[in-house]
Write a structure and sequence with these properties.
alpha/beta; Rossmann fold; 7 helices; 4 strands
Length: 202
């Protein structure tokens, strides 16, 4: 294969994307990657609060992906950026992405979101848990189907609940996925089970 025949996205360094539903453990994974030596792309505009006392690790321009704002993507090469699942299909095909997709027990996601809405003084009762769970599951099916069709995306799934129980195993999994360039011992140190406040039994 000649240089001219190599797809553009294969010439670029991969962008590490941490994704999942809101309240699925994406901030914890971003913190692990940063501790392990992979710098995050974040502007720190959204500051830590009671719902995320260690910070959100967000980059505001990510929210404009749907509007076509992709000029910031070169700054994300060889870094980690948090992008919620709903925005993944708006990523342009000109880049390579390694997606760490966070999963969490659905009852915990729903409980955590409701608690966050209460803390913000918003109404958490617009939809029932059953309705939200159905919407979220349909959304995940759509996003997974999209990711599976992309030739420029590699993905691993990380279960937040299992990560808290076996941080060393998942630090090793993520490190292998990212070419063994992270410090696993430092990744493990930032996993804090005390932040697991919405627990689901069953």
């Amino acid at each position: 294969m000649t240089q001219s025949s190599i797809p553009d996205f294969e010439r670029k360094r991969p962008i590490v994307v941490v994704s999942g539903l809101p309240r699925s453990g994406t901030s914890m994974m971003m913190r692990m990657l940063e501790a392990g030596g992979l710098p995050p792309l974040t502007d720190y505009q959204r500051t830590a609060d009671d719902d995320n006392p260690r910070g959100y690790y967000e980059f505001e321009r990510v929210k404009k992906l749907k509007e076509g704002d992709t000029l910031w993507l070169p700054a994300a090469e060889d870094k980690a950026v948090k992008i919620i699942a709903a925005l993944l299909p708006y990523l342009p095909p000109a880049y390579r992405y390694r997606v760490i997709f966070m999963r969490r027990a659905m009852p915990e996601i729903l409980a955590s979101q409701r608690r966050m809405l209460v803390n913000r003084g918003e109404d958490p009762g617009k939809f029932s848990d059953e309705e939200l769970a159905t919407l979220f599951e349909k959304h995940l099916t759509h996003v997974y189907s999209w990711m599976n069709r992309q030739t420029n995306i590699e993905r691993i799934d990380v279960n937040y609940n299992e990560l808290l129980e076996r941080p060393a195993a998942f630090a090793a999994l993520v490190n292998r996925f990212l070419d063994n360039r992270l410090d696993e011992s430092k990744m493990i140190q930032v996993v804090d089970d005390r932040l697991h406040r919405q627990r689901h039994k069953g």
